[in-house]
Amino acid sequence: MIKEMLFGRTPIPTLTKGLDASHLRQRAIADNVANAQSSGYTRKVVDFEDELKGALSRRTGELFRTHPSHLPSNSLRPDVHAKVRQASDRIDGQGSEQVVIEREMANLAQTQIKYEAEAKLAKQYFELLNMSIRGTA
Known about the structure:
Elements: H1 2-7, H2 12-34, E1 44-47, H3 49-57, E2 83-86, H4 89-92, H5 101-134
Antiparallel strand pairs: 1-2
């Protein structure tokens, strides 16, 4: 109850979901690289961003957004989670089922940048919360 009161309407639940998705994506990339030479291996991909965009676009609160890039009043529904699946040429485009090391390394770098940005935002929020509790600036 206290956790929900402190963090329920903050960016923390959204950031937590993003950090979890980045972690899952890093594991999927590691599996892909480890199995790059295995015959018959189909690479893994993580789906999260599209589901997150859908959850954030649904009108869930009473506040009015003055700019399309602003977050809505409620962060996330609890059913938004990152999901690992096998890549499919039909869904992801031609050649997406095969592991290409260069693509995996680019995905890893992009995932690392996202993870670091999300962690930094969470740290800043907790620092602000700490300052408000202590009454310091």
